[in-house]
Amino acid sequence: MTSRVHSPTAGRRRLRNTLRRVRDQVRLTQEQVAEAMDWSLSKVIRIETGGVGISTSDLRQLLQLYEVSDPDQVAELVELARVGRRRPWWTQFREALPAGYLSYIGLEDESSALRCVSPVGLPGLLQTEEYSRAVVEASWWAVRPSAHGPATATDRINVRQIRQREVLHRDRPPEITAILDEAVLWRQIGGPEVLRRQLRHLVTLGSEPHITIQVLPFSASMMNMLSHFVLMEFSDPADPDAVYVESAFDHTLLEGEEIETYRNAFSRLRDASLAAEDSLTLIEQVADRLA
């Protein structure tokens, strides 16, 4: 029996992975499933990619086709289908924010570890509210000025604050390791006072036992050419690791073999970064210079 999930995104992900696996075990193609269930092929594909949820009645019929009869396994998969059809808090922002970003939030909500690399700016989970607002005002208008207005800017800030409450303050928060380029510490987003308070906040967070902050210094003999990314790990083997990659124009979730590239990149960047204690000392020194 695998562990329970509460996030609809994680529930759909675990269910689709299981359904693909058991279909392969009984050696049925997607076309054969569609014919046997009297479904369209696109419905089978969308269920297996997580594009749509599946009703519990459809799932029970599908499991009969797949020869899944163990009562505990059937009950577990039916519960995943129910979880996958819930409306989590982030659905209220569905019209305002990119789908890839919202999918990331759903997996972040279930993660046991987050490995973040931020060559520009700070991970949203580590931002103060005033720094978040300054980041949005400094960058978002320049990227997509015609597609987003003040309401959406407020939505982005609100989402970051809710994420912090839901992730950092849950009973068992994830282990977080964030690698920041040193340039992030000096770029005065919002002005020196906003940045100083943000840096003090980083020092406070970095003192938590489950949060590690490391700085890739200017003196490092390595350059990070990657976009901001987060490697997400999960406590249950039924949930494979995933990577969220964010650039100015794209929000992408990756799974499978591509993850190893990001895992290796994270490892190399971490090795080139200052130790956690030295990183917090540097952050404090920069904050003092802004006082």
Automatic annotation (TrEMBL):
It comes from Natronosporangium hydrolyticum. PROSITE patterns: HTH_CROC1. This is Helix-turn-helix transcriptional regulator. Residues 19-74 form the HTH cro/C1-type domain. GO terms for molecular function: DNA binding. InterPro entries: Cro/C1-type_HTH, DUF5753, Lambda_DNA-bd_dom_sf.
